[in-house]
Specification:
Structural class: alpha+beta
Shape: globular
Helix content: 25-40%
Number of domains: 1
Number of strands: 6
Length: 161
């Protein structure tokens, strides 16, 4: 009986992580991943992503993105965008309104770059369900690269130029 209990206690963290899902930066690990582009809040995500590239004036070269969504049993969701060249992760809220959705990633204050995370584990003050540790950043980026939707934004001339 003790051996069985020991096996259960040692294995329990695996069950709590929801089958290989990241456990950080969440208060509780998500229950599943979902296809982000199938949600009406994130339709045609490449438009919002392209707008982010233009906002940061990085349209002169190809940019690689990964988009991943997490869902909990209570219906809550979170969506994360990983920008490879920028080394950043952004939690994206999306919108049912097309114009708002397409402009919703054009904010310099959202997201966090791996290089900006304090190595001492101190919260950089981003608040909410933001990435505040190197471990959390890598968990999200790695999970996105393995399971997320990939987008490549080719070089382009921004509208109005």
């Amino acid at each position: 009986m003790k051996a069985l209990l020991a096996v259960f206690v040692l294995a329990f963290p695996l069950f709590a992580r929801g089958g290989g899902l990241p456990d950080e930066p969440f208060r509780s690990p998500p229950d599943e991943r979902f296809l982000v582009s199938a949600s009406p809040y994130y339709q045609q995500p490449e438009r919002a992503i392209k707008n982010r590239v233009a906002y940061f004036k990085k349209q002169d070269k190809a940019n690689h993105f990964c988009l991943i969504g997490y869902k909990w049993r209570d219906g809550n969701t979170q969506v994360w965008l990983h920008w490879l060249e920028d080394g950043s992760l952004v939690q994206w809220d999306g919108s049912l309104d097309r114009e708002i959705r397409e402009a919703s990633l054009m904010d310099a204050s959202d997201g966090v770059r791996l290089a900006e995370i304090a190595t001492d584990g101190e919260d950089p003050g981003l608040g909410g369900a933001r990435v505040t540790s190197v471990r959390a950043w890598h968990q999200l980026a790695d999970d996105c690269e393995q399971h997320g939707q990939k987008y490549v934004i080719a070089p382009f001339v921004p509208d109005g130029k």
